[in-house]
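Late entry, written up from scratch paper. The run itself happened at the end of the previous shift, but nothing got recorded in the book at the time, so transcribing now.
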Amino acid sequence: MQQLSKSEEQLMEYIWQQDRVFLKEIMELYPDPKPAVTTVMTLLKRIQEKGYVAYQLYGNSRQYYPLVKKSDYFSRHVKGIISNYFENSPLQFASFFTREADFTTDQLEELRKIVELEIEKRKK
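Output as recorded:
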């Protein structure tokens, strides 16, 4: 599946937020200055061709809905980063992320809890 551009990703974010959405509703979600309707229609066509969205027709109106879950998209994205920049090593990525993300002590403690819970799940 092709990667999304930044503008396509922003549009997908609106679609993921709403789950099912008409063009008019998408336009309302954009901050000012809003892009042209034709620009958004072009983006919708592109992400549809890439397999990220589909639509259902209601008269002349199209209601768009995601074909890819947000979590699946970002999981694939992170796996690509790990593969391309961290020699396919999740441990190198986690080490870098932990050092460079400017976590507070409380956030690091929360991260430790998340890791410990995941370890417990995998032991079962």
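The chain has two domains: 6-66, 70-123.
(Scratch paper discarded after transcription.)
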